[in-house]
Specification:
Shape: globular
CATH topology: Aminopeptidase
CATH superfamily: Gcn5-related N-acetyltransferase (GNAT)
Radius of gyration: 14 Å
Oligomer: single chain
Number of domains: 1
Helix content: 25-40%
Strand order of the largest sheet: 1-2-3-4-5-7-6
Distance between the termini: 23 Å
CATH class: Alpha Beta
Length: 150
């Protein structure tokens, strides 16, 4: 597996296919559309094995911080280090650019949903800590913002 920059021309179809294969995480039509738009416009990385195994997109927040906006790993490639490698590549890139903090938002534990418990555990295992609870996605989808030093 290798990690390379996201190609806005070549990679969107493969990223869309990954999202379509993860209905437990991507069941909201608006979220699917927003993710599809992000892989066409935002900077990011893809993990490649025999095809695209995973991707992440990100955007700057301010001069010191960036945020992972979308990340997904193909169902058959989960728990093989793909997500960890994508985050590590982003951290290395941000560090080289003088960014000191990386953030991500995900579904809060206030809404008991096992797939997102896995997501929060993944981010904690990758050095993120929960910073605050937000209600930016509506009361039925409480958000937790996580952060880590780069």
């Amino acid at each position: 597996m290798r990690i390379r920059p996201l190609d806005h021309e070549l990679d969107p179809a493969a990223c869309d296919a990954i999202v379509a294969g993860l209905p437990e995480w991507f069941g909201d039509d608006r979220g699917i559309r927003d993710c599809a738009a992000a892989v066409k416009m935002q900077p990011g990385f893809v993990a490649v094995d025999e095809g695209v195994a995973g991707f992440l997109t990100w955007e700057p927040r301010d001069q010191d911080a960036a945020e992972i906006t979308w990340m997904a790993v193909r169902a058959d490639a989960r728990r093989q280090g793909v997500g960890r490698s994508l985050v590590a590549e982003l951290v290395d890139s941000l560090r080289a650019d003088g960014i000191s903090r990386l953030e991500v938002k995900t579904l809060s534990s206030r809404r008991a949903y096992p797939p997102y418990a896995e997501t929060r555990a993944f981010y904690r295992a990758n050095g993120f800590v929960e910073v605050e609870e937000l209600d930016v996605w509506g009361p039925e989808n409480p958000v937790v913002r996580l952060s880590r030093r780069v």
